Amino acid sequence: MAKTNPGNFFEDYRLGQRIDHAVPRTVSGGERALYHALYPARHALHSSDKFARACGLPAAPLDDLAAFHVVFGKTVPDVSLNAVANLGYAEGRFRKPVFPGDTLRSTSEVIGLKQNSNGKSGVVYVRTEGLNQRDEVVLDYVRWVMVRKHDLNAAAPETVIPDLAKVVPPDSLVVPEGLDFTRYDFALAGDPHRMADYEIGEVIDHVDGVTVEEAEHMLATRLWQNTAKVHFDATNREGGKRLIYGGHVISLARALSFNGLANAQMIAGINAGTHANPCFAGDTVRAWTEVLDKAETSAPGVGAMRLRLVATKGGEVGALKGADGKFLADVLLDLDYWVLIPV
């Protein structure tokens, strides 16, 4: 009997299937240091215990996307080890900050299946929860991924595509307990602009760029324990080029957005996300943001702002799709998300 795990293929999934993912992970300041080494992340709330305490938190939490990557990485051996590509996200909520010393684990449910017309692959939809050592949900999200078939003659499952909300309602966003921006230090945060200074429809060019290096990408996938073959094994894709983990692009774009959105301190929700085109080592990632909406929260001095964060390989700022409705070739990522920001 085989002792090794070849990973799940499309025909192995069943609607309603629940998967408890292996290897819980206790996070530490090491994850924070490596996250800041990999990405130009500078948001003050995640960098300084003193700043975080002045904002009502017990200490600086891990960057929200660092927690996301840890939770995501746990799911890869069961969900996307044999993936062609991770396609998108929806209904993401960040429910509790993650602090050094917390232990994270992941669990997923298969909520949708659709075989592709070529019969060689299919799309699997899963809802994933990340939980801490107290079994509290720290974040949850839906993602869908294209997975290869192993047995091309396996019968196609009934097509079920989940009905997903286009936007996480702002009144369902969770503001961390104690968060208070009434004593917020804009000088230390590095930007004078609060939510009132942004207009719906405004487009912000984040100016800077980061060229993706193979070594950094490989370090990132190992750090997040993301074992998907398309990221590790150069023989797994035509042309021998490893695909850059989509979350790596998200973190690069989010870090670049500091220049223009330094006070968008915490991610509260992910409404939608699409990896529009593949990213490879040598590509230079740039970013721009469109302000989509603004909302109040019940926390003192804290507002919620809905943003569209677009990562590109250098395309025109504000340009997203062509006349045919398809993403432009330079667009890598289209991420619609909520952030918490001083009002």
Provide the descriptors you would attach to this structure in a database record:
343 residues, globular, alpha+beta, eleven-stranded antiparallel β-sheet, 19% helix
Overview of this structure, please?
The chain has 343 residues and is an alpha+beta fold. Helices cover 19% and strands 31% of the residues. It has eight helices and eleven strands. Strands 1, 2, 3, 4, 5, 6, 7, 8, 9, 10 and 11 form an eleven-stranded antiparallel beta sheet that branches. A hairpin with a 5-residue loop joins strand 5 (121-131) and strand 6. Helix 1 packs antiparallel against helix 5. It is globular and about 60 Å long. The N and C termini lie far apart (60 Å).
Number of DSSP E strands: 11
How far is the first residue's CA from the last residue's CA? 60 Å
Strand content: 25-35%
Largest sheet: 11 strands, antiparallel
Q: H/E series, N to C?
A: EEHHHEEEEHEHHHHEEEE
Helix-residue proportion: 10-25%
Query: Number of DSSP helices?
Result: 8
Protein structure class: alpha+beta
Shape: globular
Kindly report the average pLDDT value. Answer: 95
Radius of gyration: 20 Å
List segments where confidence is low: pLDDT < 50 over at least 5 consecutive residues: none
